[in-house]
Structure formats: C-alpha cells, structure tokens
Amino acid sequence: MKVTIFQYRLFHYRTKLFELMRTKCQQRGIQLDVVYGQPYRDEIKKKDTGKLDWAIPVKNTYFPIKEKKDICWQPAPDAVRDADLFVFMHENRLLANYYWLLRRRLGKTPQVAFWGHGRDFQSNAPGGLRERWKQMTLRWPDWWFGYTQHTRQLVEASGFPADKITVLNNAIDNVDFQQQLAAVSDAQINAQRQALGWDEDNFVGIYCGSLYPDKRLDQLFEIADIVHASAPQFRLLIVGSGAQQPYVEQMCSSRPWAHFAGGRHGAEKAVLFRMSALTLCPGAVGLNILDAFISGVPLLTMASAKHGPEIGFMRNGVDGYLINDSVPAYAHKVLQLMADPESLYALQQQALQAATVYTVENMADNFVEGIVRCLQARKPVSGVARA
C-alpha cells in the first residue's frame, strides 16, 4: 500500500513527525511519501523550512489575490499517482484538493483525506464566506485527521461519520527542550536571577511567544500591574519577538519589576522557564501550551481569545486555567495561586503529566493507526463527496 501526504511547504517542526511515521508505516507494510512545495512571499522570510532527504519536492504555482492572500496549485508527481491514499491539508486555498476530490467523486482512486483544524480559529470573520465554504467541505473526504478533540466535534457536527475521524493530538518534537530543562542547574538559575536583580523569593510569571495583537499584551500588562500592586514580590518576564516588540520594550522600561528578554531558544529558554512559576498568556494559545506542560509552568489564558485548537489540551482547573474575559478575574487567579503553594504545586504536577500525553511520538502513532484504518475501510466510492 502507498500513502502520500501533501504539504504546500515543509515546516521544520514537522520533519520528526514524518520520520517517525515513515518508519511506523514501513513496519505495517505501507510506503509513506511526503510531497512538498516551496514557500511564497512573506513565508520566505520566516526561514522555517525543514529538510527530509526522502521527501519529494515539487514546484507550486501561486496566484496572488490580495496583499496577503493567494491560492496555490500543487502538482502530484508521477511517482505518487498510484498511491492508495492522498492526505491534504484542509485549506480553502489549495486547488489540488478540489481536483482530487472530484476524481474521487467519479469513483477513481486514490482515497482522499483531510488533515486540519476544522475551521480557522483566528478568523476575523467566523461567519464569512470563506468559513462557510470551509465548513461545507468538511464532509467531502473519505477520512479526517483532526488536530484535536475539538476538531472531531466540528467535523462530526457537519454530518461526517464519527468512525472515519482520527484525532492526532497535534504536537511537535520537544525532546530537546525536555533535555535542556533537565540540564538546568541551580547555579544557572541563581546567575540569571542575579543578572536581573531578582531573588528566589520573587514569584515569576513568564510570557513566551510571538508579540502581536492577538496575544493581548496590553491586557498582560494590566494584569501584571494589578498583581504587582497586591504582591510586590511578583515579577513579569517576557520572552519573544514580533511586531509589538517596541510596545513591550516601552512598557517594561517603566516597570522595574518587568523584564523583556527578547527571543530566547534552547538552553537559554529552559533557564527562564525553570525560574518561573506560571505562564501568563491572556491572548491566543497554540502549541505554546506544550512549553507550559513540559516545563511544569502551567498556563493561564482567557476563554474568549483567538486560540488555536491546542487549547483543547487544557483541563481547566487541573493543569491550567481558562478564565472568563476579565482582567480582574485573571489577576485574582494569579494572586490566589501565589497565596496557595499547595494548589500551585498540584497544578504544576498535572501540567507535567499532560506533557507525557501530547508528544510527537504519540501523534505519529495516532496518524499511522488512522491511515491503517482508512486503508482497511476503503471501497469503491461513487459520490463520496457529501454535499
């Protein structure tokens, strides 16, 4: 059996997943191929392209339609056209999806599966035409590979068969970060505290991520001001880079108890998490929730933010907190945890436990198991697209 996964571009954080999947597929008698194209426009600047020696590169054709919008045609090379299953990202802009779905409707092979969120969680127009179209296409493939349980709920609600959905539990390779955290010494933590002028009695809340409006950094500073006014031992540590960096630098410069560390990675990032007690991110949460789990520095966020599907990993009140859209309520929860070390410790331990569930190894197992089930369930399908 042959399976091909299409990526309009190959992200570096997916290479470990595909390596694991290729090995696991071989063990099940399945040949796995990955076809990938090249980044376009602003994507080139991100420099986040990965490398797989065995993957098959193709040249995409992009058609710009707005300043930051485009549609993309990604060809299927001859080497994979005899595959039994094609897996595509569920994105409106990917024209090849519709071509292969049409062929499938006509009763031709290969089977077609979607891999995705189920909807655009960051859309500024959730009731708009693009989102309505995306919702309609939920029912069209033979199989669904959903990022999270939330995706399963969305796809099931569209009328898609529940027994043809595989939940992947989206993750990235965090083995290096785990090892870096384990290698941090007390001497390194003390040296970092001294460099900041802080001591071990300070309670550190860390923000780590990109700096842009959906992260609600203005609310982060409002919360921090309230907390510090009631608990002067509180310290705010911000790690990251992005469009709002000048704003963050300005806000930290007027608060001696707040520090902007800029972008930090690897061992440097590990030290900063080891000296922190809570992750504070009132805005959008995505895969950064895994940093909070792996480090045992549980995350607090707001329910109304434009979260990615990974917010579904959080067990509210168990390994993190999803707080109603209220700055005072958020600050109150931080102060509560500061005053209750036993509850904070329990939260931290549950976060560490969650980290053992959301791993790239488990994601690869889930993906391959779904592939096997899809191939076993295959049958000639006329009119597979569910209108």
Summed up, what is this model?
This protein has 387 residues and is an alpha/beta fold. It has helices spanning 15-27, 42-46, 95-105, 129-137, 149-157, 175-183, 186-196, 217-230, 245-253, 266-274, 288-295, 327-339, 341-355, 360-376, and strands at residues 2-7, 31-36, 56-57, 61-64, 70-73, 85-89, 111-116, 143-146, 165-167, 203-208, 234-239, 258-262, 278-280, 299-302, 320-323. Strands 3-2-1-6-7-8-9 form a seven-stranded parallel beta sheet, with helices on both faces. Strands 12-11-10-13-14-15 form a six-stranded parallel beta sheet, with helices on both faces.
Based on DSSP secondary structure assignment, what is the total number of beta strands?
Answer: 15
Number of helices: 14
Broad CATH class of the largest domain: Alpha Beta
CATH homology superfamily of the largest domain: Glycogen Phosphorylase B
Give the tally of structural domains: 2
- Beta-strand content: 15-25%
Mean pLDDT: 92
Strand order of the largest sheet: 3-2-1-6-7-8-9
Low-confidence runs: 381-387
Walk me through this protein's architecture.
Helix 1 (15-27) crosses helix 14 (360-376), helix 8 (217-230) crosses helix 12 (327-339) and helix 11 crosses helix 13 (341-355). The chain has two domains: 2-173 and 360-376, 3-Layer(aba) Sandwich (Rossmann fold); 175-355, Glycogen Phosphorylase B (Rossmann fold). The protein starts with a strand and ends in an 11-residue tail after the last helix. The radius of gyration is 23 Å and the shape is elongated. It contains 14 helices and 15 strands. The model is unreliable at 381-387 (pLDDT under 50). It has helices spanning 15-27, 42-46, 95-105, 129-137, 149-157, 175-183, 186-196, 217-230, 245-253, 266-274, 288-295, 327-339, 341-355, 360-376; strands at residues 2-7, 31-36, 56-57, 61-64, 70-73, 85-89, 111-116, 143-146, 165-167, 203-208, 234-239, 258-262, 278-280, 299-302, 320-323. It is an alpha/beta fold. The strands form three sheets. The protein has a seven-stranded parallel sheet, sandwiched between helices. The protein has a six-stranded parallel sheet with strand order 12-11-10-13-14-15, with helices on both faces.
